[in-house]
Specification:
With 431 residues, the chain is mostly helical. Helices cover 50% and strands 6% of the residues. The chain has 18 helices and six strands. Strand 4 (64-67) and strand 5 form a beta hairpin. Bound molecules: carboxymethyl coenzyme *A. Keywords: Acyltransferase, Transferase, Tricarboxylic acid cycle.
Length: 431
């Protein structure tokens, strides 16, 4: 194991019904120490109870570290602010996958690999034809990514490091093409293919917006902004979709199927679907005068209304990604010559209002990465329903990096949580 030795107070003892279990406390490189409860059930016959797994470390990982109190996010030790300012998405993807930033040659080679794998099998076009035109892009992504596993049956050989690496690169490379085609399909426009002279983000933008009937040139400010947005979303330790990918991977499933499961988990409004939900919410609020009424609804426990784009399971001070996102938002709007964006103005007012309200202060609820991303995407001309698909493209890097890491973990086992059963005792059929 890669843990350092337990600290001075290196054990926790639990006494139950006259028996005592002594459990080691393990320290990682940073962050909270963990109580190793693996012997608890054997020694005391107890399970632990942690709905939402907020106090449970389900695996070891060397990829991403978050300090939620201080608002720190590190990829392989590098602060997100530095990576967003100085690196390309391809470099960050390489870093997350392989552990170190690439040399110049490695970077070129990796970009070439991504490009070579960005095409889709022509038969995938038929998959899209099976969807209604108004299908949500996340539905199309889920289905087509899962379906791609049938095109790469050799990917099921997960015992082979090279095969795992190839699947990981294929997935990162093909996701923008799939997402862009989902968008094109919804508009009834011809699919656009990746181009060898474009970067990852340029290709993504080109495949979304280029049309057969007129020339299209990718605006570098927009592709740089997209690159940064993809970097900010690339990984976030053991979040719901990543845990889903790890869980699915723990059964030995095909990597494309694991990522399809991750896409399903990301879709929900509590997770990646929040960026779409923020714009819907701003649309519903409509204008600044309605903010107090809306906030009153959010605070009313019976209303089931949440302030979307606010709050986070781990960040309890600020989300460092939200700060960079807000800055990117200003840059994009300026580049696009948008002097006054009513949605941005409403969002800023709403943020101010919430940050001065006791309800949010006491619960340590701050804007998260999704609060501003929707406004940027909208300004770029990207429809609401595509927002979460962008998140999925970015997070694929994290999913496959974590999926690969899990295979080299000597502690790897199938995920199989226990439960606190509260249903009927045994009873017999009365007939
Ligand atoms: N609006 C109003 N109240 C909230 C919100 C919110 N957005 N988030 C949390 N609370 C309240 C919650 O009602 C609870 O109050 P009380 O203690 O009185 O019962 C308290 O804060 C703790 O909330 P929780 O639900 O236990 O927190 P959680 O860690 O389970 O949930 C969350 C985290 C992100 C799901 C939640 O904050 C939320 O639903 N936010 C809105 C959706 C959103 O923006 N999601 C994107 C997350 S960032 C992108 C990503 O990683 O996917």
């Amino acid at each position: 194991m890669s843990f350092s030795p337990p600290q001075d107070d290196g054990t926790v003892s639990i006494t139950f019904q006259g028996k005592t279990a002594t459990l080691p406390v393990l320290s990682g490189a940073s962050g909270n120490s963990v109580v190793d409860i693996r012997s608890l059930t054997k020694e005391l016959g107890l399970f632990t109870f942690d709905p939402g797994l907020g106090s449970t470390a389900a695996c070891e990982s060397k990829i991403t570290f978050i300090d939620g109190e201080k608002g720190i996010l590190l990829y392989r030790g590098y602060p997100i602010e530095q990576l967003a300012a100085k690196s390309s998405f391809a470099e960050v993807a390489y870093l997350l996958l392989y552990g170190e930033l690439p040399s110049k040659e490695e970077h070129e080679d990796f970009k070439e690999r991504l490009l070579n794998h960005s095409l889709l099998h022509e038969q995938i076009r038929n998959f899209f034809n099976g969807y209604r035109r108004d299908a949500h892009p996340m539905a199309m992504l889920c289905g087509t990514v899962g379906g791609l596993s049938a095109f790469y049956p050799e990917g099921i050989d997960i015992s082979n490091e090279e095969s795992r690496d190839l699947s990981a690169v294929r997935l990162i490379a093909k996701m923008p093409t799939l997402a862009a085609w989902a968008y094109k399909y919804s508009r009834g426009e011809p699919f656009v293919y990746p181009r060898a002279d474009y970067s990852y983000s340029e290709n993504f933008i080109n495949m979304l917006f280029a049309r057969a009937d007129r020339p299209y040139k990718v605006n570098p400010i927009l592709s740089n902004a997209l690159d940064r947005i993809l970097i900010l979303h690339a990984d976030h330790e053991q979040n719901a979709s990543t845990s889903t990918v790890r869980l699915t991977g723990s059964t030995g499933s095909h990597p494309f199927a694991c990522v399809a499961a991750g896409i399903a988990a990301l879709w929900g409004p509590a997770h990646g679907g929040a960026n779409e939900a923020v714009l819907q919410m701003l649309g519903k609020i409509g204008s600044k005068e309605n903010i107090p009424d809306f906030i009153a609804k959010v605070k009313d426990k019976n209303s089931n209304v949440r302030l979307m784009g606010f709050g986070h399971r781990v960040y309890k001070n600020f989300d460092p990604r939200a700060k960079i996102m807000q800055q990117t938002c200003y840059e994009v709007l300026e580049e696009l010559g948008i002097k006054h964006d009513p949605l941005l103005e409403l969002a800023i007012e709403l943020e101010k209002y919430a940050l001065n309200d006791d309800y949010f202060v006491q619960r340590k609820l701050y804007p998260n990465v999704d609060f501003y991303s929707g406004i940027i995407f909208k300004a770029m001309g990207i429809p609401k329903s595509m927002f979460t698909a962008f998140f999925a493209v970015a997070r694929t890097v994290g999913w496959v990096s974590q999926w690969k890491e899990a295979f080299n973990d000597p502690l790897r086992r199938i995920y199989r949580p226990r439960q606190l059963y509260t249903g009927h005792q045994r009873r017999d059929l009365n007939k």
